Input
Amino acid sequence: MKRSVKSFLQAPSNLSQWTHSLSIRPSSTSALSFSENPLQITESKHSHLTKSSSNHAHMDQMLRQMINNEPIDPFNLMKLIDFSVSSHGFAASAHLFTQFYGLIDTNLCNSVIKCYTDSNKHLHSVFVYTQMWRNGIFPDSSTFPTVLKSVAQLCRQELGKAIHCCIIQMGLDSNVYISTALVNMYGLCSSVSDARHVFDEMPEKNVVSWNALITGYNHNRMFREVMDVFREMQIAGAKPVEVTMVGVLMACAHLGALNQGRWIDEYMDQNRLRLNVFVGTALIDMYAKCGVVDEAEKIFKAMRVKNIYTWNVLISGYAMNGRGESALQAFSRMIMMEKFKPDEVTFLGVLCACCHQGLVNEGRMYFTSMKEKFGLRPRIEHYGCMVDLLGRAGFLDEALQLIQSMSMKPDPIIWRELLGACRIHGNIQLGEFVKEKLLELQPNNGENYLLLANLYARHRRWDKVEKVREMMDHRRIRKVPGCSSIEIDHMVYEFVVTNGMKPGFEDIYELLADMNKKLKLAGYVADTGMAAYDIEEEEKEDSLMYHSEKLALAFGLLKSSSGLTLRIVKNLRICQDCHGFFKVVSKVYARDISVRDRNRFHHFVGGVCSCNDYW
Output
């Protein structure tokens, strides 16, 4: 690679320095941490020999047989190394590389590393790699792709950079397989800029290289960059495969980019790419997260082979689109007719379906059956769904009792769900109790303060609202700004909430003002209950007009043909005023509108929302 890469890595000047940089001490959780003592490798759970004396005798017997009687072949050496590491840990096994010096070569180490990596024993792979350097066994082009895969799974960027230095010094940085492994490692270690740097410097790329970069961007939730890379890939003439399509469909799903997702669906059909279980599941997920459940159902029915993940995305897709009954029917079909065993993700989708539809009795039943019938231990996400379900339905005391009965410590999300329910039902006393729990766990999260302020505002407790605002100002806490996106002609446009008019948005503001007049004639009344209390009513209405989803809606009306569904994605929960506004727009302007907020979909058709105003 070029000098820029070398300087960016700050490569050591000789091999001995690199081996020193690879000193590691695995922790009890198998995560790597670096030791000051070079090449000191220990493991807390193997810090001393913990196996029985029979195991010691067995190992001694193997050693005697290998030294005195049997030929020392690679298979026996691999067997001995694996037995020693598995039984006695790293520190006690390091001496084998010294004892059999000259017999353990690069090919043997490569075989051992590959076996460990393929078996998900990634710490073991790194151990063998460090022993190679310690004992003068030089790695080759077959060593690095495998050990880098283990480093990526362990998510140790420091170790990966040290290995990268070694690759450069050995002149192997132009090897397409090694460079691809580096791109994958940096991407999974959340260093996407480094992954891109390596990728751009590659003299040769194959489809796996492109897939590695796409995976890295997806892993770091950089979904727009995924779409950019896919376009680059096509311009470069690289032919996508099924794995590529799964990665790109994942990005489309998160962006809500339906048109681009449909284009990819058509592309796969035209190029005869297989609708295997992975591609099919990704397509179902994409269509569901873009609000087109009918298309998701068609893909599901067309799939010959399905797995538990396929069923999970279908059930979750029904749930987020407000089709709770369909989700429960799919669950019953999955376990009764198809004989699939549900997992924790399945039940999360089922409980979300109950929550969005207000199916309290059903939610209680499924939550109980999860434990008693299927032997699954509820995770904190399942408790969160139940608290949300009970709280929205008004069972605040039961929700609190459920939290207090949890075997694990409630996290801020659990308490926030209960605070949201207090806001809905106006329970200030319980809300203030929950507030204390939240401020103890997350004192700097702006959403906690906003929920509390909204609770006070609903009861016109403006003195309390002012205290919450002062507390936020004192702690310099800022709320997350609302951001909405809309896809028009295969392009995704973003809008952020504003406090007033911004240059370049004149057409949008003019249309919004006109819409506001028409909607008022049709019965729309702005819900100013959550607006700032210290401004006039007219100013409150003006402030509501600049919410990001309304800006996206006006842009969509200006730029799209009549008859097309407007599809908007928002990063936060849609507010009550915007919800009412969108209902009336769908009737007055005769446009179907689909809004995916942080929790679910809202499909507005003819003045009615699919959530039935229960959200």
About this structure: Residues 227 and 565 are 22 Å apart (CA to CA). Confidence is low (pLDDT under 50) at residues 1-54, 532-539. The first strand starts at residue 24 and ends at 26. The radius of gyration is 29 Å.
